[in-house]
Structures are given as C-alpha cells and as structure tokens.
Specification:
Blueprint lengths: L2 H5 L9 H10 L1 H21 L5 E5 L7 H7 L2 E6 L2 H14 L4 E5 L14 E4 L9 H12 L8 E6 L2 E6 L1
Parallel strand pairs: 1-2, 1-4, 2-3
Antiparallel strand pairs: 4-6, 5-6
Helix pairs in contact: 2-3
Length: 167
C-alpha cells in the first residue's frame, strides 16, 4: 500500500489523528498548506465571525479550526466521518475546556438530518471527497447557512477547500 492509499480512504477509514497531526506539523508540505489555509480562514473570520454566531464545521478532523472557532462563537456543531478523528476531537475539546461544541458523525453529502441553519459553515477537507464540487457548495450554502434579509455569502477557497460565511 502506498502513502496515498494509506492517507485517502473513503468512509472515514484510515484517518489516524497522529498521522494527520504529524503531516501538518512536521512536514514541509503540510506546514505550508496549513499556514496558507490559516491565513485565509482567519482573515475571513476576523471580519465575519461574531460572538453570538452558530457555526457548523464539516470534516473537523483533529480540531485545528474547531478550537479557535469555538472560543470565538456561541456554539458549534462538528460533523466528521472518521470515528477516530471524532474521538480525538472530543478528548481535545475536554482538555481545552470547551463545552459549546457538539460532535456528530457524518459527511457533508449526508447533511445533519435536521433543519438546523447556521451563521457560518467551515469545510476544509470534505471538498476533496465530494464528486460534484458545485453540488457540494450548493448543499453547504443552501442547506446550512441562514438567510437573513439580503445576507451575502462570502466564499474563500484554497484549492478545493472552502470557507463559507454569511455576513
């Protein structure tokens, strides 16, 4: 099995939190990817995120964005397909003392099974696995983002990674 086969598996299989953290904190490529993503995401958040906002995050992984977002908003729902990543994230949230985050199993395409709407949505990794990117974006925007009057949707993309925020 090559590195790509070990890294990218469907249905949440093969996602090991330790490997994921190692890649993004110890390899040149991972560090560069994470730095560029963070620059774009945090710039968007600085202008859009309010303390009373509710945010949904798809593909939360180990919580790189979950933790800082949870500290700056009223509440979050994270949706992650990998049981191992969910467990890691729940433990991290406990260590960080964050109680305003609900973790759920699932994928972007599956939705949440409820009519909930959020002020913002973050999806950094799932778009690599969505077969139809346009349909994935529609799902994210129209199923999960609140529409308030003439609200605008801000979209920041890094390759196939997308942050959508209603402001």
């Amino acid at each position: 099995m090559n590195t790509g086969e070990r890294w990218f598996r469907s249905g949440g299989e093969g996602w090991y939190p330790g490997l994921y953290e190692w890649f993004f904190s110890k390899t040149r490529k991972g560090i560069a990817l994470r730095a560029r993503e963070e620059e774009i995401v945090y710039e968007m958040l600085a202008t859009a995120l309010e303390p009373d906002h509710l945010v949904v995050e798809f593909g939360s992984g180990t919580g790189n964005y979950t933790v800082p977002l949870a500290r700056r908003c009223a509440g979050m729902v994270t949706v992650e397909v990998s049981e191992e990543m969910q467990g890691y994230l729940r433990e991290r949230l406990l260590r960080e003392g964050l109680t305003n985050v609900e973790t759920r199993p699932g994928r972007l395409e599956d939705g949440l099974g409820t009519p909930e709407k959020f002020d913002g949505a973050l999806a950094m990794g799932p778009f690599f696995y969505v077969r139809n990117l346009e349909e994935g974006l529609r799902t994210l925007i129209f199923k999960f983002i609140k529409r308030v009057g003439t609200s605008r949707i801000g979209i920041t993309a890094v390759l196939r990674r997308v942050f959508v925020y209603s402001y």
